[in-house]
Amino acid sequence: MKTTDPKKRQLLDSLKGGLIVSCQTQKDEPIYTPDMSVKMAECAKWGGAVAIRANIPEQIKKIKANVDLPVIGLWKIWNDDTDVFITPTLEACQAVWDAGAEIIALDCTAQINHEGKPARDLLPIVKKAIPEAIIFADVSNYDEARWAVDHGADIVGPTLYGYTEATKNIEDPNFREFARICRDFKDEAYVIMEGHIYTPEDAMKVIFLGAHAVVVGSAITRPHYITKRFTDLLTGYQNNWRVAERSAH
């Protein structure tokens, strides 16, 4: 069942049919400056975005201080022994919440984390520890979405489709699978599309399929990846820009 908390419902309903822009940058990227994520968020608001998705407590805090939009917060933390990196611990979730994010995104896949446990086991722990937070379950397939919804995720989205071992070679969104998630879970949670959306036409397509809202990141805010997509094609796919996008920072 969807949350009955009136404050959460008000925020979540305000996202309906809208564009959420992922405003992230890492220190090893060519576009990085201390205020770049804020500038991205300001541009997103100017362009009509309904919310921001942001990484790292420091950047979340700066965005919240300058841009009056809801923030989906996460903290990418990489460890060599796992592919789980999106807000992988309770401490990371608490830091994202303390930075001002209204929504916490975390890995809710079946992947094994740094502690040797399924990443999704963190979901009920965070819900109990930070009950005021709206939880965005990042999953990679239908079964993980089902588990996340059953365990209380407020939002579910296929953010990690293409980032798990089983899906790592995926280039395009799976519209049929996403439509199935919308059909089966839309009455129990808010279904938001994230991942592999590069055009306004595809964004509109997922709204038509049942998405509550759509998140777009690299296609809007990361010109080095946009350039690489062009040059990869122009050189006959000698390189794959997604390798850089998936890399640890």
UniProtKB/TrEMBL annotation:
Keywords: Carbohydrate metabolism, Isomerase. CDD domains: NanE. Pfam families: NanE. The keyword Isomerase applies. It catalyses: an N-acyl-D-glucosamine 6-phosphate = an N-acyl-D-mannosamine 6-phosphate. GO terms for molecular function: N-acylglucosamine-6-phosphate 2-epimerase activity. It is an enzyme of class 5 (isomerase). Its EC number is 5.1.3.9. The keyword Isomerase applies. Pathway: Amino-sugar metabolism; N-acetylneuraminate degradation; D-fructose 6-phosphate from N-acetylneuraminate: step 3/5. Coiled coil: none annotated. InterPro entries: Aldolase_TIM, NanE, RibuloseP-bd_barrel. It comes from the Bacteria. SUPFAM superfamilies: Ribulose-phoshate binding barrel. Converts N-acetylmannosamine-6-phosphate (ManNAc-6-P) to N-acetylglucosamine-6-phosphate (GlcNAc-6-P). Belongs to the NanE family. This is N-acylglucosamine-6-phosphate 2-epimerase. It comes from Lacticaseibacillus baoqingensis.
